[in-house]
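lol forgot to send this yesterday, sorry. struct tokens for the thing we talked abt
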């Protein structure tokens, strides 16, 4: 059936029984593309977002050093040749202000803002089995009805702050990086504490160190990190990138991680040690995730190969930190390089060479409580601060879903179903929750985010077209298909060292309420982008055998 014919069917007709045919929750990268696809079909669709404007994570995260770690030209949308020809990326890795400007440009170019409603935080979603409709209750008490909900609420959109005694007594400024004030924060001469050394902190620390009077970093577990190696993109290079866009996106589609970086498939044992080091030197000095994803596949699966490569990265860290004792504190001992997501950094390790930066070992000497003037540690020392930054991570993958009271058939709550970890079909549907689709939800392939979003939207949209063309009003993943998918997701962890990592991806180190410490949560599909894409395309080509329609 053609797009025009679908538009003339249910999708294009007035829907007096509901407010909108489709409601998308979230106006970030995924939600923007989804509303573009639906409005192109003439579908009555609306985007709801709890923020004051569009952009999702790029609207909220305005901390110093915020930028993405995907090459800019692999992060932008691929759906419009006209858009690709118009937009100039100024840096290899775009900073937050430019990324937000890009998303605003896309929305304005395609006149999408009129389909978006902001300051509209969703508190509850309830499915009506008699009418095959959803009712969304917003924070302001208003309600919206729809036949279909598509969530685009983000993987890292729920920040987690620690529960340290006395946090509310601190007389200075304190915030999580997700809530970094939108107005400039004057740190000149200030005494600043950054609690945490995860990916966000690794971006913040070098920037704050340049401005603060003194910076103290409270580290519980050190994190591996590799150089971002960012640089400007010249006008000539941008022209070359435009000429190569088809090639660039084809490479992203081939690679397990959705980047231009494709793994070295020569085989670890087939390459002499000297040649391996030559490759690592070149990748370490190159841009982005090359050092991680353009490496030998064995580093993800073979403990000995990973140990050798981790030793190489540790040696590079020692070269960059002046104090040998301090360097050792910055090298992880509880996991190898690359078995969990690698933060990319700009001058992170060199920041500890500055006289105004101190590393505090919070594992050896933990924080006891926050006091009005700073932080008290267990050795009885009170550390005075003017600003405290709680860079303590996010309630990843399921956190944004848990914050909404989502009730499916027979009053089943999604939060309860996912108490021990997410259970999905293809990472986009959940049995017991009809007419609900998830973009960038748990158990989709963990790849370059916009590439994953476009893959999901390009699968979800034809599914809805199929519904309208066939005259169906309801779809739902079958329990058997869902169980088989979860089993497959679990199997995709088995060959990889990731299965043992104390990571926010696996949930092993989770200290979140409702998450059992030490229990793995199957948060991602670990089989890579190509395998995942082939599986969901097979589902569509075979007429969606894993779904029930009515």
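and heres what i got for the seq, position by position
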């Amino acid at each position: 059936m053609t797009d025009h014919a679908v538009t003339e069917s249910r999708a294009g007709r007035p829907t007096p029984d509901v407010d909108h045919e489709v409601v998308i929750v979230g106006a970030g990268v995924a939600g923007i593309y989804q509303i573009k696809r639906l409005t192109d079909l003439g579908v009555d669709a609306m985007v709801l977002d709890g923020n004051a404007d569009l952009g999702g994570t790029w609207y909220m995260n305005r901390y110093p050093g915020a930028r993405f770690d995907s090459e800019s030209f692999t992060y932008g949308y691929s759906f419009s040749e006209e858009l690709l020809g118009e937009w100039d990326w100024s840096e290899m890795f775009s900073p937050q202000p430019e990324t937000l400007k890009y998303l605003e440009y896309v929305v304005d170019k395609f006149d999408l803002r009129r389909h978006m409603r902001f300051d509209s935080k969703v508190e509850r979603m309830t499915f009506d089995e008699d009418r095959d409709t959803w009712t969304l209750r917003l924070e302001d008490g208003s309600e919206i009805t729809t036949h279909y909900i598509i969530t685009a609420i983000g993987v890292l959109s729920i920040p987690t702050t620690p529960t340290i005694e006395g946090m509310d007594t601190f007389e200075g400024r304190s915030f999580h990086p997700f809530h970094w004030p939108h107005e400039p924060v004057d740190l000149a001469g200030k005494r600043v504490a950054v609690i945490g050394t995860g990916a966000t902190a690794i971006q913040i620390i070098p920037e704050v160190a340049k401005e603060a009077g003194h910076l103290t970093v409270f580290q519980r577990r050190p994190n591996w990190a590799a150089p971002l190696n960012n640089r400007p993109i010249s006008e000539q290079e941008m022209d070359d990138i435009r000429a190569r866009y088809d090639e660039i996106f084809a490479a992203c589609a081939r690679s397990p991680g959705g980047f231009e970086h494709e793994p070295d498939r020569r085989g670890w044992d087939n390459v002499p040690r000297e040649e391996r080091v030559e490759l690592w030197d070149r990748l370490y000095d190159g841009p982005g995730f090359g050092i991680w994803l353009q490496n030998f596949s064995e580093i993800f699966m073979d403990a000995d190969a990973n140990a050798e490569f981790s030793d190489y990265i540790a040696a590079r860290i020692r070269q960059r930190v002046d104090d040998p004792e301090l360097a050792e504190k910055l090298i992880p001992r509880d996991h190898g390089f690359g078995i969990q997501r690698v933060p990319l950094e700009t001058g992170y390790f060199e920041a500890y060479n500055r006289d105004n930066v101190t590393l505090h070992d919070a594992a050896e000497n933990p924080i006891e409580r926050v006091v009005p003037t700073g932080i008290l540690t267990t050795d009885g020392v009170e550390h005075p601060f003017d600003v405290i930054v709680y860079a303590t991570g996010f309630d990843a993958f399921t956190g944004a879903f848990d914050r909404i009271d989502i009730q499916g058939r027979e009053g089943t709550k999604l939060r309860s179903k996912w108490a021990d970890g997410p259970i999905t079909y293809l990472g986009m549907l959940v049995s017991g929750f009809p007419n609900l689709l998830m973009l960038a939800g748990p158990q989709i392939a963990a790849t370059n985010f916009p590439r994953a979003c476009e893959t999901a939207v390009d699968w979800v949209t034809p599914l809805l077209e199929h519904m309208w063309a066939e005259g169906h009003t309801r779809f739902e993943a079958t329990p058997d298909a869902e169980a088989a998918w979860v089993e497959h997701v679990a199997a995709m962890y088995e060959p990889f060292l990731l299965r043992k990592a104390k990571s926010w991806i696996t949930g092993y180190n989770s200290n979140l309420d409702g998450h059992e410490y030490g229990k793995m949560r199957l948060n991602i599909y670990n089989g890579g982008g190509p395998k995942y894409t082939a599986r969901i395309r097979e589902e569509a080509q075979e007429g969606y055998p894993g779904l029930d329609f009515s």
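Residues 1-9 have pLDDT under 50 and may be disordered. anyway ping me if u want another try
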